[in-house]
Amino acid sequence: MDNDVIIKTLEMTRRIRDENHEKLRGKSPRERISFYRKKARRLYDKIGRPLREAPLGVLLSQE
Asked: Which domain of life does this protein belong to (predicted)?
């Protein structure tokens, strides 16, 4: 137990959510989608997997 790492997932999730909320405040739906796509692209590049994207028009038509 001495070497166990405690991950406070709830606090981490709330912190990330709040940071993203501040960054996206006042942004259009298109800008929000772009924000999350960039984040996803960086993650997929980091883990070495290809990124699959839905067409932007499909996402906007579901709003």
From this structure: Bacteria
Q: List the one residue out of 31, 53, 55, 29 whose CA is nearest residue 41.
A: 53
Q: What integer pLDDT is reported at residue 50 of this predicted model?
A: 79
Handedness of CA 12, 33, 63, 26 (dihedral sign): positive
Q: Is the entire prediction scored with pTM above 0.85?
A: no
| Residue matched to tokens 């997997």 | 49
Measure the CA–CA gap between 62 and 56, rounded to whole angstroms.
10
Place of tokens 């997932």: 9
